[in-house]
């Protein structure tokens, strides 16, 4: 048993960069489509929707918070929220942060104190793809907050 544990601990996860980049390119394309469909609002309506909150806008990147709220949620009523960075020059979108987590590493040793999966970053980017497909299939309305961008939270790296 100790030998198996040592082997698991010693083997480092090597991300499949080609697959990750394909996923991020697909996410960028879908997000740009969703942004084109989004209604600009000064305040979010009190109904089920995907809320798009601009957090940061630069020449080559944008950071958005995506939050699904309300009765449209097909599960327990929790708010689903992700912070996503769009790289406009490379046409990629990657998940930076999700609730109670900081910027994701490319891979994690396993086991670890935070119980993160070895491929946590890949899984969250795949989740973003599936989530956007689900939003489009359910025809959830999209709203983008107008005006000044909110400040970006501390996105320091996880220890």
General description of the model:
The protein is 31% helix and 25% strand. With 159 residues, it is an alpha/beta fold. The chain has one domain (15-41, 49-145). A 6-stranded mixed sheet has the order 1-6-2-3-4-5. A hairpin with a 3-residue loop joins strand 2 and strand 3. Helix 2 (17-37) runs parallel beside helix 3 (120-138). The longest helix has 21 residues, at 17-37. The two termini are 28 Å apart. Residues 148-159 have low confidence and may be disordered. InterPro entries: DUF1249 (IPR009659). This is DUF1249 domain-containing protein. Pfam families: DUF1249. It comes from Permianibacter aggregans.
From the structure above, extract its key features.
alpha/beta, 6-stranded mixed β-sheet, 3 helices, globular, disordered C terminus
Uncertain regions spanning at least 5 consecutive residues: 148-159
Tell me, rounded to a whole number, the average pLDDT. 77
Biggest sheet record: 6 strands, mixed
User: What is the radius of gyration computed over CA atoms, rounded to a whole number of angstroms?
Assistant: 17 Å
- Secondary structure tally: strands: 6
Pfam families: DUF1249
Protein name: DUF1249 domain-containing protein
Organism: Permianibacter aggregans
InterPro entries: DUF1249 (IPR009659)
